[in-house]
Amino acid sequence: MIRCYTREDFVARWDYDLENPRLDMRGFEVDELLQDKDETEHLQKDRVRKIPLKELKSDLILSNGARLYNDHTHPEFSTAECLSLADLVAQDRAGERILLQCARRRTEERGRASSRKGTVRLYKNNTDFEGHSYGCHENFLLPRSIPFDDVVAALLPFLVTRQIYAGAGKVGVEGDNRHDQALFQLAQRSDFFEVIASVDTMTRRPLVNTRDEPHADPARYRRLHIIIGDANMCEWATALKVGALRLVLELLEAGRVPALELADPIGAVKGISRDPGRRWEVELADRTPTTAVDVQAAYLDRARQLTAGRDDETDWILDSWQAALEALAGDPLELVGRCDWVTKKWLLDAFADSEGLDWGKPEDRSWLQSQDLEYHNVDPQEGLYLMLESAGDGSVFRYSDSTSIEAAVVTPPAGTRAWFRGRVLEKFGAQVRSLNWDSIEFGVQGRVQTVDLKSCVDADTAAIFNRRLDQAGTVEELLAALVSTPTAKETP
């Protein structure tokens, strides 16, 4: 299905040698990950089919700077690097359209084989309701100088409680048969977290992932890899989820994070998601009772003190954050079309009423779960959210528009190294041997020459790289233009 994105002969170009998921931010490298056994079993089955690893991964770097590949038996779309929420939301929505194109082309291919007919459908969600979860990851660059323990302490209360406005909603409970299943949760991922911090991502999932792959200068930066978030359909939720966390990271850098510590973060993340009364009560480490709304309000107050009035994007985050907390403390239905769990619950309640369904009956709950899944269908002719959005009655908040999304399908975010990566593939793709997020290898006259992009993470540096690329007529001209900076090296 992934290979259906391009009509050309498939060429795997991703350089896996530059990846090491076993490096831990706490200063060590683990011998193995708990997910390795599962991946080995899959590889053994695939070896019987005699399919090379590169073919299995089907790794593609797209012209818009994004990555599309097979990640542990499901398709994963990774947006290009973004410097603004507008770019991020547009790139995220572009991913939906790219994957829909793949699904439709795969359906056409199957239709041409009489024994393999059937429609391929894709869902932008985080669970199959059978105990399997797959993440929606967020990645931020942080200064390496900030102690990692400070990062964990600053983020835990925020991440655990953020689901009250960022959760995508879910019918039922997974991994706990003792719990009442006649329940609608705030978040799809909350059932699956077991530890505070770990380098693993697929088993014994951590609230804070400690993988140390900065994709930048490792002496200056670390990459914060957040795996707790849900995949959002609502653009408002995507923008606020990422935007609020960005401001919290600024609080961390400024030493202005509120002094909060949860008594039981793992218990709290599940308890908040499953609370049918929507009180979202939690306990601090000093046994003081509080609520998720109050915890979020403490972060919001500090963020407003530090950043209010700086620019339009920041003010939008602060105002939307405030509006979310006020609605959640009063009438959550004010967030229909903005917050996914509220929107989904509103749709499911209407469906249950119209069909006379009882949440307490397993057979009716299965029907509701099927509608839960259809909320995330990326086909606008079938997906419940996308049909609501397309109604155009103003009930759904739009952070982007069709023009910006269509542009993001083929165009990388301006002013980023993703622009360099995408334009290189467009101009000189035939000479690209392999690439990664932070480097590109060219084949030039029988030799390999590498452009190192680790320094190209800020707008000013990216502007230099991108200007030299636009001016170059050949790969040789580009490499010569980059010689003045420590970015290119030649190897036999």
Helix-strand layout with pairing:
Elements: E1 23-24, E2 28-29, H1 36-48, H2 53-57, E3 60-61, E4 67-71, E5 74-78, H3 85-111, E6 138-143, H4 148-161, H5 163-166, E7 170-171, E8 184-185, E9 193-198, E10 205-209, E11 221-226, H6 235-254, H7 265-274, E12 281-283, E13 289-291, H8 292-307, H9 312-329, H10 340-355, H11 362-375, H12 384-390, H13 402-410, H14 417-428, E14 432-436, E15 439-444, E16 447-452, H15 459-471, H16 475-482, E17 488-491
Parallel strand pairs: 9-10
Antiparallel strand pairs: 1-2, 3-4, 4-5, 6-11, 7-8, 12-13, 14-15, 15-16, 16-17
Helix pairs in contact: 3-6, 3-13, 4-6, 4-7, 4-8, 6-8, 6-9, 8-9, 10-11, 14-15
Describe the structure concisely.
It contains 16 helices and 17 strands. By secondary structure, the protein is an alpha+beta fold.
Task: Name the descriptors.
492 residues, alpha+beta, 3-stranded antiparallel β-sheet, 14% strand, globular
Reported for the largest beta sheet, the result is: 4 strands, antiparallel
Give the helix proportion (percent range). 40-55%
Radius of gyration: 23 Å
Shape: globular
Q: What is the mean pLDDT?
A: 89
Oligomer status = single chain
Uncertain parts:
488-492
